[in-house]
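Worked example 2:
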Amino acid sequence: MSSIALVTGGNRGIGLAIAQSLAHAGHDVVVTYRSGSAPAGFKAVVMDVTDTASVDKAFDEIESQWGIPEIIVANAGITKDGLVMRMSDEDFQSVIDANLTGAFRVARRATKGLLKLKKGRLIFVGSVVGALGSAGQVNYSSSKSGLVGMARSFAREIGSRGITANVIAPGFVETDMTSTLDEKRRDEIAGSIPLGRFCSAQEIADVVSFIASPQASYISGALIPVDGGLGMGH
């Protein structure tokens, strides 16, 4: 029987690529989305990670219809970039709430099922800027940095039950978000990356699929960079 994989924010970009990769690997994939429409070909539920009641309701729905998700990919997130002098409390708090507290809400609720299964994978989608920092992204980099402490604490707390927790840290990825950058800025960024190019969403998804696989059963508490060498050692 194939295991159930849950991908939050799985209706576009990196999340959708992860969902497709996990499906290709033989998992039964459920994606969550907050707005817009569900992607074709996937089981899907509405979930707002900033709302505990919404997270709980979505999990209840998934568990009653399809079973307990064994692989959890906390991918949903937002950005509200701006220079720190002009960053409001709301700009900071809303990004932390979606990216960090949101991942916590999902992982906390998922753990109920994983403890019953006595196995599972918690996979948090972080970012290279969690370690490197990024001008104009104090809120975002703080949220992604926090995921590392979170994942490692989960790894220690529930590792004895056969549950791993890891962070995948993408660098600059070819998505709708980065496609809006002008060519000069894109060239500057690519020039700072040892591999000299942006990452594809598929390259992120492949690493997530590996961490979800039996081959990665002894990897836990790790920060796995997929950044073309940009973070190097951080």
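Residues 96 and 175 are 22 Å apart (CA to CA). The chain has seven helices and seven strands.
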